[in-house]
Amino acid sequence: MVPEDVKKRIEELRKEIEYHNYRYYTLNDPVITDYEYDTLLKELIDLENKYPQFASKTSPTQRVGSKILDGFQSVRHPYFMYSLDNAYSMDEIVEYDKRIRKLSGISEISNLEYVGELKIDGLSIRLKYERGELVLAATRGDGRVGEDVTENVKTIRTIPLILQKAVDIEVRGEVYMSHAEFKRLNSIRQRQGLPLFANPRNAAAGTLRQLDTSEVSKRHLDSFIYSLEFPERHGVKTQWEALRYMHELGFKTNKESKIIRNFEEMKKYFDRYEKIRYDLDYPIDGVVIKVNDISVQSLLGFTAKSPRWAIAYKFPAEQARTRIIDVTVQVGRTGVLTPVAHLEPVKLAGTTVKRASLHNFDYVKERDIRIGDIVLVEKAGEIIPQVVKSIKEERDGDEKPIKLPKSCPVCNGPVGKLDEKDVAIRCLNPYCPAKLEGWIEHFASRKAMDIRGLGNKLVTKLVKNGLLKDPGDVYELNVETLSKLEKMGKKSAQNILDQIEQSKKAPFNRVINALGIPMVGEGTARLLGEKFHSISELSRANEKELMQMAGIGEKVARSIIDFFSMPQTKRMIDKLISHGIGVIHELPLQKTRPLNNLKFVITGTLSKPREEIKNRLIELGASVTNTVSSKTNYIIVGENPGSKLSKAKALGIKSLDEDGLEKLISQLSKKKSS
Fold it and tell me: What's the pLDDT tens digit per position in 371-416?
């Protein structure tokens, strides 16, 4: 029997946390500190873990994201989701107003009200609630069929899981990424050597289609809700009333919306937001005007593609001409060499631009951009200045080609590509000072040593204070040293040290991956971990021995040997070995690998994180793939399995739940040992 006060406390916590979510994310007016909020959330998580019978799909704990999705199911919309017609000049808006008045029978002197709304540059979304609870979130798709992205949308704090009233309702809005979040995300991707998102809209769209809901949660998407479907069912008679009603229910609506009563007010509204669009922290690409009276909207109806009662006034894209006066090369935290153009100062999107990205050296070569060129510059997503193209017709012969560096401008080490598919040129010296923070972040990452709490902010502090000069120094840290750092008490320091101690149990293949050997990723690390049983043994391997392994060619073998031949590597390895890391392979005996040569696929939500189950299978000798094929031996099935299970059944592949997997491992282990 569960005490009644436990159930009551869980319900109280859920209501209180959602209220604070609303105050913080929707109203931007928090009434408690972050610490107090975190304390409430932790209490709820602990209670839900202890009493799983009270689990709820609408609990605020669902917002942190924990599921790995198989894919996205198609959703047929019950009504067509129209897109808006566009206008690009005030003359077109004047003609639109005349056309609306003629179609509706409202004369020019009559009071035809519009509602002005900002056109958010994001991703259109449809939300469905039953009795006030979110049951579906779907993308627009082609207007008739979209995708079910409910689990990902649950991570968006401004989208309520439970409304203020228990109503059946459908609304439409826009999911977007703020400029600040876009900048933060691209900064992380640059450090990791990943391609940058071109603009916030692409970033939002890419995020919403992530299969890892925890990754979606980390990217802090936001929303504005602007359309109430079937408003007459809720006694709503105007668009302005609809915005107020949706806000009362708990949705985030845009406070910049305004009732427009005449053409003069409309022009002022357009002009204002065209001027201040870059001062807003969210991307807009225009302004939308909608007929306010819903009965007039019904009278006007729709064309084949768009509502007649609304139109978008699109702002012109802003570019500027200037000249490249020099090019320097920046070295990122993963060693990526990025050419940066120094420009004659030019006004662009409300700021003076003096530098712009040239992305990579392939980009420069493809577009034949040179020092001295007159170029077109724009801001990607109104944030990152970039050179779009050179104007070759204006060359005078004094322009100079942009040359690929022969060595790293920071450490003078060798440069090159990690593999043929890599676009980026990188510094290949793992001990380059410019790469140190990124290297240690990689060392602590989930697929390496998995040291939770050792994130980029703390790593930056430790490196700047001279406490980390290579990953081996991580294991030299102590409570006294850590607790002296800003905003770091003894309890927090001890928590991090506990995680560092726990990381010593990491499988050997993850230790190899953590070392950051150039050209050695997760897959190659796994191959090396199967053949070698300690760091010392791996460090003594010769080129011939390495190249005999499937999947390792001459370049990778040479990179491994060069890495271990460096004096700095030897010092780092000595530190790791002194702390018991990489000393003996966890699974040196063949009998401990009962799943050798078996291929698995995982689908659905399991009781443990999918990555944890995947790593265990690999350590036991299996291979784990994302795709079901005739070569698959078993499919592991959790709750809410996707289309993979259907395909597996069609191919006659045996399915296992978690208990079935444990029985299989036990049976095969006994067989191996007998």
Answer: 999 999 987 544 568 888 899 999 999 999 999 999 999 999 899 8
CA distance 231 to 83: 19
Q: Which pLDDT score is estimated for 347?
A: 83
Partner residues linked to 357 by β-bridges: 340, 386
Query: What are the CA-CA distances from residue 226 to residues 108, 229, 245, 276, 285 (Å)?
Result: 27, 10, 11, 21, 16
d(C-alpha 661, C-alpha 612), whole Å: 14
User: How many whole angstroms separate alpha carbon 8 and alpha carbon 398?
Assistant: 78
Q: List, for residues 205-250, the tens digit of each pLDDT value.
A: 889 988 888 889 999 999 999 999 999 999 999 999 999 999 999 9
Alpha helices in 383-489 (DSSP H): 436-444, 456-464, 479-483
Q: In angstroms, what is the C-alpha Rg of the chain?
A: 29
Crossing angle of helices 4-21 and 34-50, in 10° steps, is 140
Rounded Cα distance between 44 and 277, Å, is 40
Are 31 and 21 contacting, i.e. CB atoms less than 8 angstroms apart? no
Q: What is the 3-state secondary structure (H, E, C) of 495-533?
A: HHHHHHHHHCCCCHHHHHHHCCCCCCCHHHHHHHHHHCC
Domains of the chain plus CATH, in order, are 4-64 (1.10.287.610), 86-314 (3.30.470.30), 319-401 (2.40.50.140), 428-588 (1.10.150.20), 590-673 (3.40.50.10190)
Q: Please identify which of the residues 8, 42, 98, 119 carries the catalytic annotation.
A: 119
Q: Is 305 a known active-site residue?
A: no
Claim: this prediction has a pTM higher than 0.70: no
Alpha carbon distance 672, 591 (integer Å) = 6
φ, ψ at 609 (rounded to 5°): -55, 140
- Give the angle subtended at the CA of 365 by the CAs of 361 and 369, to the nearest 5°: 100
- Here the tokens at position 41 are 């959330």
Instruction: Give me 275's structure tokens.
Output: 């001027």
105: Cβ contacts below 8 Å, ≥ 6 apart: none
